[in-house]
Write a structure and sequence with these properties.
20 strands, 33% helix, eight-stranded mixed β-sheet, homodimer, Carbamate kinase, alpha/beta, four-stranded antiparallel β-sheet
């Protein structure tokens, strides 16, 4: 019998009515002959409320106690959902992370899953139960409650699907699936039927939300098909899987725009081994996450080193760099916080030429000047003036026909 | 180093300010050189809210899931209290029932404690931590969360005190201690300094609240001194211990009045072995709890069987009795729901005569007629007309001088 894991986020279980709706969906999957495991998040704004409660008694609460506190949110949801299923005449049992031995390391508030006692759940499934598991939480070797950090419930769901060898992990959310680009920026964007883990990872790292990178990495590692779909209807959403042959024909799957970036350029750094490492170690120490890096030699002695960071990290980054500038011989620091980064992602780039050319053409058509360019194997990004961002994205989407399903594009 | 267990009920931890106050009290006890274990209930009306949430999705929720749900209330309190202590610079760690292996049977919503892993807590105490334990909850052998039913947090606290061989278990509540009688009925009532487990058990069974019978039984069994005191001030409260010599001189420790009773009389029951057992088995099946029973032979063939029950159980009881009346040959059923039961309790009754006479004298003085009388080793109860209840209690309190501390009474 096939196992399906269904994950419901906080907005999909925010009140009694929504919990009943999610439970009904699980029941249908069960009635269709599947074994069903539900993973649920805390209801609506419950976690925020608990964090506020904590800050009232301690502005800097110990992480272990924070996990002990906020893990109650999911525990409440799963017991309520088991009750809802019971009211429908369906056998159901809820589990906390501790109860299914979702063992993690002891890095409270950002723990990583090490193992899951799948046998325990399997036993209940075999007895005809729907199992409801608290997402986002685990337990360390000594029995302390841990939580998995941002996107944690998705990670719980995909990890459970992997441990149970599930046919699919369904992620129910408040959008219909993954779109070719943000429909708020390009209203003609269409939902993708299918996308590869690698593309989804790139999109996630470019801030194209919906799912957090870690859960996708898990899916990729353990080969779990992930189906991102709406909790409000029965439409198929977007299926995330390993790359399949037909994907190779798709040059560009999606496009993104990020505006909350800043670009820092260190001009005239001494071109010596280890200097770049020194700069980035310094930034890491200041907990600044660095995105794309560009280094160019400007002479035999000097190089320019540029990179992008989140705009919110700018003050920290500048402070950190002040401490290292002299050491690496940097002549001047140049900061831009008026930029947008336009990216296109597609596995087809691996085997096809011309994508970069087409992208630059799109930007030229829109009369947008390019500040800098970075690429990965399946991504090309351009930095442009923030004021040109919207028209640049629109032009790129039109040139790559992101308003059409992948199989109807003409290029 | 002496161990003190401090238990704080829901009203004593209802908000951030009260949690901080309770934490401060624990800190003081720690600073005075004690090892401190705190047992806490869910905040204020939290449990009621969770029960309401449950009933919204299932009018008859499965008990296992109910326990899974409502146990989150105490988990939230204990983590918040650990955070509050951390903010004061005091090392503190919170535990759920599962985390300290508070193992119970699997009778969900009314489980009984079987064992506690005291060594785990002792280890943290020895490292200078204050341990905060979620009251009311445990875990069965298979890892399911259980709850202990009414008064459960008190039972957790006393059981922990027993397991840790604590010097005292302090029960912090919203009253100053145990009074000679309900001050709302007899304003001159005084706080008792000292009372025996047996007396407290009688008072608890007579509805004189403050503490639930089970926790007192635990205290008696494992010889844990229980100190009931106010969470609002530092006044000494009432100490509940084993009987000590000086208590023998106290003929009457306290008096109670219960008005929420009904009395049922089965008139003319066949006087055969097993008939009374049949009646009470039938009532037990209908989940009706029977208090005092009086049986009197009225002839060689017939007996009258009377007993009191909670008024709220009257409909269930009458229904149950309708099914058994014929079988036991009962001639008629006589019900009174207009009664009050006045009781006096005192270990001194064991070795002193005259208490009953003095009680009847008090009622006669107040011109109160007695419907029936029952006694235990340390208690005498009279049923009177409900309209005479208040003046009967007042007269009894005055005759036994319950407005004076025990050592100042003149009888």
């Amino acid at each position: 019998m096939a196992i399906i894991v269904q994950k419901f986020g906080g907005t999909s279980v925010a009140d009694a009515q929504k919990i009943v709706r999610a439970a009904t969906r699980a029941l249908h999957a069960h009635q269709q002959g599947n074994q069903v495991v539900v993973v649920a998040s805390a209801r609506g704004k419950q976690t925020d409320q608990l964090i506020a409660d904590a800050l009232e008694v301690n502005p800097n609460p110990p992480r272990r106690e924070m996990d002990q506190l906020i893990s109650t949110g999911e525990q409440q949801t799963v017991s309520l959902m088991a009750m809802a299923l019971d009211a429908m005449g369906q056998k159901a049992i809820s589990f906390t992370g501790a109860q299914i031995r979702m063992v993690t390391d002891d890095a409270h508030t950002r723990a990583r899953i090490q193992s899951i006692d799948a046998a325990r759940i399997q036993q209940w499934l075999d007895e005809g139960y729907i199992a409801i598991v608290a997402g986002f939480q685990g337990v360390d070797e000594r029995g302390n409650v841990t939580t998995l950090g941002r996107g944690g419930s998705d990670t719980s769901a995909v990890a459970l699907a992997a441990a149970l060898n599930a046919r699919v992990c369904e992620i129910y959310t408040d959008v219909d699936g993954i779109y070719t680009t943000d429909p708020r920026k390009f209203p003609k964007a269409v939902k993708m039927e299918h996308i590869s883990y690698d593309e989804m990872l790139e999109l996630a790292s470019l801030g194209a939300g919906v799912m957090h990178g870690r859960s996708i990495e898990f899916g990729k590692k353990y080969d779990v098909p992930i189906h991102v779909r709406s909790s409000m209807n029965d439409n198929p959403g977007t299926l995330i899987t390993h790359e399949v042959a037909q994907m190779e024909g798709i040059l560009v799957s999606g496009a993104t725009m990020q505006k909350e970036l800043a670009k820092i350029s260190l001009v005239g750094v001494d071109n010596k081994p280890g200097n770049a490492a020194r700069v980035f170690a310094h930034l890491a120490q200041a907990r600044v996450i660095v995105n794309d890096i560009i280094q160019t030699e400007v002479s035999t002695e000097k190089a320019n080193l540029s990179f992008t960071i989140a705009k919110g990290d700018l003050t920290d980054a500048k402070k950190a760099l002040d401490g290292i500038r002299k050491e690496v011989g940097c002549e001047s620091l140049f900061v831009r916080d008026d930029i947008a980064e336009i990216s296109v992602v597609g596995v087809g780039m691996r085997s096809h030429y011309g994508v970069a050319g087409k992208l630059f053409e799109a930007l030229a058509q829109a009369k947008v000047n390019i500040d800098s360019i970075t690429t990965s194997e399946i991504r090309i990004s351009c930095i442009v003036d923030i004021g040109h961002g919207d028209k640049a994205l629109t032009s790129v989407c039109e040139v790559f026909e992101l308003d059409k399903p992948a199989d109807q594009r003409t290029y």
